[in-house]
Write a structure and sequence with these properties.
By secondary structure, the chain is mainly α. The protein has helices at about 1-15, 40-55, 55-60, 70-80, 90-100, 150-155, and strands at about 30-35, 60-65, 85. The longest helix is centred in the N-terminal third of the chain and has 16 residues, at about 1-15.
Length: about 160
């Protein structure tokens, strides 16, 4: 159902979004969407968006391409550097890029960054064994936690204590 809503949303938004993207002296423009790892949800989403855009490419003369990237932070930095026109990113990283915090501290605020749509909500879930003594978030203090796959943890500069 979520894929249907995303595709429906893009079928309505994409024509207007790209309407002013070409120039009279530019016979065809290329548009790149940064996604994420091939095993995640962002990669097939980027491909689906490009399929929708490319269906009308004869009319609007825009060719969309998507590719696997290192994810949210890389996509936001790529947009800022002009390496891509659009990237899929988690909202917390969008916030940090916009405000120049966390991984974007050295880059400063990217006030020109805009969000086009939300793909899906992401909840924060903590799972603990019943005998762990963890009942509230503060009970995690001093506990070993798993922050995800090693490559994700390395990209974020965190220590994985799985």
């Amino acid at each position: 159902m979520i894929w249907f809503r995303v595709l429906l949303l893009f079928s309505l938004i994409v024509p207007g979004f790209f309407a002013g993207a070409t120039h009279a002296d530019d016979p065809e423009s290329e548009f790149f969407i940064g996604t994420g790892g091939k095993g995640g949800v962002y990669f097939p989403t980027g491909r689906a968006i490009c399929r929708l855009v490319n269906k009308g490419s004869r009319k609007h003369r825009i060719q969309c391409n998507s590719g696997s990237t290192a994810g949210s932070v890389a996509n936001l930095k790529g947009i800022r550097a002009g390496e891509m026109e659009m990237g899929i990113a988690q909202s917390d990283w969008h916030f940090h890029s916009y405000h120049g915090t966390s991984s974007f501290r050295d880059d400063g605020s990217f006030a020109g960054l805009r969000s086009v749509f939300s793909l899906h909500p992401e909840s924060f879930t903590v799972v603990a064994r019943a005998d762990s003594g963890v009942r509230r978030l503060r009970d995690l203090k001093g506990k070993r936690i798993n922050l995800g796959s090693p490559d994700t943890v390395d990209k974020l500069g965190l220590e994985n204590s799985a």
